Structures are given as C-alpha cells and as structure tokens.
Amino acid sequence: MKNSAGSAGRLPGAGLRALLALTVLCGVLHPLAVTGLAQAVFPSRANGSEITDGSGRTVGSALVGQRYDLPPAPGRKTAAPDLRWFQPRPSRGLGTNTVNTRHSLLVSGATNRSGDNAELIRWVTEARAAVVRDNSTPTHPVRPSDVPPDAVTSSGSGLDPHISPEYARLQVHRVAERNHLPTEEVEALVAGHTEGRVLGFLGEPRVNVLKLNIALRAKTDGDRTPPRP
C-alpha cells in the first residue's frame, strides 16, 4: 500500500517536471532557435519581405499586393484608380471580418464562384470594360481581346502582388502619357522588372507592381509617392 501511495504521489511531480521541460524546450528554446536561424539566413523574409523606396522608407511588402487609388470622391464609397500608376489585379477575394465587428479587418480568400456564375460574369465584364477605358489613349486604343485574364480576375487570396507581363505592357501607354514620359522608357521599366519562372520552370513570368511603381516614381518629377497599404 505504501509503495502504491508513493508511486501515485510521484506521478504529479513527474508530470509537472515534464510540463516545465517541454514548455522551456518547445515554447522558449525552439522559437528562439528558429527565429535566430531565420534572422541569420533569411533576414529579409523573416522580417516580412519589406520593400523600401529610394529614401529608405518602408512602403510595403513584396508578398502582399496593394491598391493605388485616388481619395474617394464626396458621396462615393469606392475610390477610383490613380491612373498615373501601374494597377494590380482586382481584389474580389477580400472580404470583411464578420465575427470581430469591433475592428475593420480584411479577410483574404477566393470568391469561390463557378465560371458560369452570373455575378462573376458581371464582374469580369465590368472589369474588362474598365481596363479598356482606362488604358486606351488617343494613339493606342485597347481592344477587349487585348485584356489578359489576370486584369479582370482576382487571385485565390486576393492579395497577389504580381501581374503578368502582358498586363503590365498593356498599361505602358497610359502610364507614359499620364506621367509625360517616353513610351520606350516605361517599356524598359516593365522589361527590367519582369521576373522569370522560378528555377526556370516553376510558375509563370510576373511583375511585382509595387517594385515597378517605385521605379516609375524615380522617373517622374515631384514627390508622388505610391499610396501605402
């Protein structure tokens, strides 16, 4: 009986020691080791892949897309795009948090609508018309058939920071005209910021919109800074 009582009494102590040991190992030492390794080997990625402008100011992340819009006009809920800048993909996948209503939080996700969904068809139709209207210039009209898919559809997360080279090139004439720049200079910016496939075969060629707009700003006069997210 005494041995049974002693064994039973030791169990809580052993459990407590195991809890403390695992807490220190998994809750303190392991996170510190992973954080230290990440800071030593991948400091940029560990800190959020921040992008800075020419003055060293952080203006966004290479992993998260952002809008480039004008301030909303009086009486309008939605802002119009600032056509001086290259524009990203639509962000239909973003929504608002319906659980924590105390704070205005964005929720990332896909629209989850099928290809024959009437609302999705309306969104794409309206987006294509807007792309044609916004990017047509007197010397370079844009046709509906010129509009690539990523110009009218959002990514799965709604936060894709990249656009296709085709969509970037479609915007060149409008951006050049709005910023009073030669078309050749803006075309060179797009070409210089076009990233190839990862390892030569993974993914598709892409252009990071924020990096491209920072380079565009350096070409323009004044202090027109791309809006921060």
Which consecutive residue ranges, at least 5 long each, have pLDDT under 50? none
N to C succession of SSEs: HHEEEEHEHHHEEH
Q: Give Rg in angstroms.
A: 25 Å
Count of distinct strands: 7
Q: Order of strands in the sheet with the most strands?
A: 5-7-6
Mean pLDDT: 85
Overall number of structural domains: 2
The portion of residues assigned to helices is 40-55%
The first-to-last residue Cα distance is: 69 Å
Beta percentage is: 5-15%
Number of helices: 7
Q: How is the biggest beta sheet arranged?
A: 3 strands, antiparallel
User: Shape from CA axes?
Assistant: elongated
Structural class: mainly alpha
Descriptive terms for the model:
single chain, 229 residues, mainly alpha, 3-stranded antiparallel beta sheet, 7 helices, 7 strands
3D architecture notes:
- This protein has 229 residues and is mostly helical.
- It has two domains: 1-47; 49-219, no CATH class.
- Helices cover 42% and strands 8% of the residues.
- The chain contains seven helices and seven strands; from the N terminus they run ααββββαβαααββα.
- The protein has helices at residues 2-41, 43-46, 118-135, 165-170, 172-179, 183-192, 209-219; strands spanning 50-52, 58-61, 95-96, 106-107, 162-163, 194-195, 206-208.
- β1 (50-52) and β2 form a beta hairpin.
- The relative contact order is 0.13.
- The mean pLDDT is 85.
